[in-house]
Amino acid sequence: MILLLGGTLDGRIAAVSLAEKGRDVIYSSVSGYNAPQETEHLICRSGAMAQDALETFVFEQGISIIVDATHPYAKAASVAAMAAAKNTGVRYVRLERPGIESLTVPTDAVLHFEHYEGAVDFLNHHPGNILTTTGSRELARYEKIDKDRIFARVLPTSKVIAECEALGYKPSRIIAMQGPFTKEMNIAMMHTFDIKYLTTKDSGDIGGVAEKISAAAACGVKVLCIDRPRLSYPEVCATPEDLVKIL
Predict the structure, then answer these.
(1) 151: buried, middle or exposed (CB in 10 Å: 19+, 13-18, 0-12)?
(2) Cα–Cα distances in Å, from 63 out to 24, 150, 185?
(3) Where do the structural domains in the chain lie, given as residue ranges?
(4) In this predicted model, what pLDDT tens digit does every residue of 61-84 receive, in sequence order?
(5) Neighbour tally for 3: CB within 10 Å
(6) CATH architecture of the domain covering 100-226
(7) pLDDT tens per residue, range 233-243
(8) pTM of the shown model
(9) Which residues, listed in sequence order, are joined to residue 225 by a DSSP beta bridge?
């Protein structure tokens, strides 16, 4: 039995592909949002699992392989999964989508920051409107910046919008839309809101980073990228197709 820790598009693709090959898969994600359809070889569960709960689950379900297809920035989840795999003696494979370095768009103008604090400090010393695309969960990290400079692009759910308002963002500063966003749509937003800086995570091609960078280059907008956490994975593959091959 394979336990696939998902919550990402590539994770869903991998789970379905493995099941279609006849492998028994349990797809696990925190919220169950956009989970794949269950089949004869694929079942789904939702809810976060700490390391101890994950180890218990591995024993109870007879898991032989943990595939970690969580988001590139879900550091705690990956650390827990690696530890659980080591403690239970099962194989751990990280499905890690390629980052900015693999993109074919020009990335010379992208500024890289290891932490949000560095990006916030930079922005506080450089005037102009900011488009944040790092998600609603990270908005609190921008608290030291004047909110009248920020346009927050977030998911269009009532909970997320309420969280933005609780942080003090006016409705005119909340762009509640579901991606993916094309280069042209990004350009339109940058022109409409007179954006000078865009913040992003290195979420890879699936995360729409290429379209953001291309649009920013066309608009003369500077991109500030919060780099991925650096972890040492024992076994890594880049695509769902590669994962299916090695399993």
Answers:
(1) buried
(2) 10, 45, 43
(3) 2-98+230-246, 100-226
(4) 999 999 999 988 899 999 999 999
(5) 26
(6) 3-Layer(aba) Sandwich (3.40)
(7) 999 999 999 99
(8) 0.82
(9) 112, 200
